[in-house]
């Protein structure tokens, strides 16, 4: 069974058709990269996967369960984590406190347990030493690692990435590449919107190419990047 199953998904903003009958199946632990021109619907597609944007028609299923207006959004957003271009960390909280906030408030995890888990994930993404620092004291690459650790603290099955490397230098991007490989090894599914072809090529199992709200092509990177 697919981790994510998308059938004829459509989404309007008022009269504007942003997603036009999208269909796609994504497997457990698969790394999907969504490419396409600006305005083609890439962000909208991934935002539908955790219902930040509700779709208007079609069927979305995660682990065989239909996602619709009756879905418990708190539970869904635990299952489907999200990492943003600008990290979206709370500036007044240390790295570890950014990570423990949702487990404590949403799941009711005790502070000590949440703290221990957060430090484990910060170590997994290579920034154990920065755990008690504040976002302003961290580089962009380190902040993005905190954002990934924060998502991991909710034990997600899927992590959505919206332009995660847009603000990062090549070295920091390599760090994110190896973290995403690590996530796949743990069977966490990743769906990543990016403009960066090199990054796409390095991480994708399959590339989804969108244009004007539709999927034009789905192919592994070796097929995608060697057009005649
Ligand atoms: P991409 O991520 O490929 O750049 P988006 O999914 O952000 O594309 O946007 C697709 C189209 O939908 C664009 O034309 C954009 O202007 C429009 N759009 C996105 N969000 C909204 C919104 N909240 N309200 C109205 N139009 C929107
Ligand atoms: P991206 O290309 O990364 O999706 P955008 O600049 O297109 O970023 O969108 C940033 C925010 O503005 C998003 O929340 C999106 O939903 C909203 N937005 C985009 N286009 C429109 C639009 N035409 N009308 C209203 N909101 C929009």
From TrEMBL:
Residues 4-228 form the ABC transporter domain. Signal peptide: none annotated. Pfam families: ABC_tran. The keyword Isomerase does not apply. One of its GO terms (molecular function) is ABC-type amino acid transporter activity. Keywords: ATP-binding, Nucleotide-binding, Transport. SUPFAM superfamilies: P-loop containing nucleoside triphosphate hydrolases. Coiled coil: none annotated. Belongs to the ABC transporter superfamily. This is Arginine ABC transporter ATP-binding protein. It comes from Acetobacter oeni.
């Amino acid at each position: 069974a697919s981790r994510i199953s998308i059938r004829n998904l459509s989404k309007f903003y008022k009269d504007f058709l942003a997603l036009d009958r999208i269909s796609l199946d994504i497997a457990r632990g698969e790394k999907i990269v969504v490419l396409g021109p600006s305005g083609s619907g890439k962000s909208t597609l991934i935002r539908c996967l955790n219902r930040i944007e509700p779709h208007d028609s079609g069927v979305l299923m995660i682990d065989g369960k239909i996602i619709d207006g009756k879905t418990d959004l708190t539970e869904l957003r635990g299952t489907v984590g999200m990492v943003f271009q600008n990290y979206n960390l709370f500036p007044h909280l240390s790295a570890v406190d950014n990570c423990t906030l949702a487990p404590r408030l949403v799941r009711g995890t005790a502070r000590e347990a949440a703290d221990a888990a957060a430090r484990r994930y910060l170590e997994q993404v290579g920034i154990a030493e920065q755990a008690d620092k504040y976002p302003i004291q961290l580089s962009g690459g380190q902040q993005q690692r905190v954002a990934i650790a924060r998502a991991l603290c909710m034990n997600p099955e899927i992590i959505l990435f919206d332009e995660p490397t847009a603000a990062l230098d090549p070295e920091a991007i390599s760090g994110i590449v190896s973290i995403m490989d690590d996530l796949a090894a743990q069977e966490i599914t990743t769906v990543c919107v990016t403009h960066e072809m090199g990054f796409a090529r390095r991480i994708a199992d399959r590339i989804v190419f969108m244009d004007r709200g539709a999927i034009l092509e789905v192919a592994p990177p070796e097929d995608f990047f060697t057009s005649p």
